[in-house]
Amino acid sequence: MWEHFHHQADIGIRGVGRSPAKAFEQAALALTAVMCQPDKVETEQEIKIECEAPDLELLFIDWLSAIIYEVATRGMLFGRFEVEIAANKLSGRAWGEQIDAEKHRTIVEVKGATYAELKVSCNKDGQWVAQCVVDV
Fold first, then answer.
1. In CATH, what number is assigned to the domain containing residue 96?
2. What angle do CA 31, 52, 38 make, to 5 degrees?
3. Residues sharing a CB contact under 8 Å with residue 91, sequence separation 6 or more, in sequence order
4. Is 24 exposed, middle or buried (0-12, 13-18, 19+ CB in 10 A)?
5. Element containing residue 119 per DSSP (H, E)
6. Of 107, 136, 134, 135, nearest to 15 (Cα)?
7. CB-side neighbour CA atoms (13 Å) of 100
8. Model-level pTM?
């Protein structure tokens, strides 16, 4: 599950899953949904993303920042993600395609992930939540 949440000037994204890795995957889909409709993105090309940080919250920011970087430098959008987290290292894969203005009808450009509303934690239902505000 993923969702957006209200924030004064920017957009909050939240991913929920049965593990931190699953929550990170869902948050990445929420990030894509800020830019376009994720179901319009073909998952034909795979790229690998690796991050390392001292804790889960910083790892989450690094993960989102890496995706934003790949969107900007490759001119791609991503519609599917897989994440593995071991200790302080994230190994991820993203599948997507080149941006097609007519097909994807991009909504906004995401400039970066911020520390505002940053949280990675397990809730009382045993679900992991990964969230932050992204700068648009």
1. 3.55.10.10
2. 15
3. 48, 49, 50, 83, 84, 85
4. buried
5. strand 119-122
6. 134
7. 9
8. 0.92
Does residue 101 have a pLDDT over 90?
no
Kindly give, in sequence order, each residue whose CB lies less than 8 Å from that of residue 57, ignoring residues fewer than 6 positions away. Answer: 118, 119, 120
Cβ(129)–Cβ(123) below 8 Å: yes
Q: Residue 8 pLDDT more than 90?
A: no
Domain count along the chain: 1
**Which tokens belong to 128?**
């992991």
52 against 106, higher pLDDT: 52
Please report which confidence band the pLDDT of residue 102 belongs to, taking 50, 70 and 90 as the band edges: confident
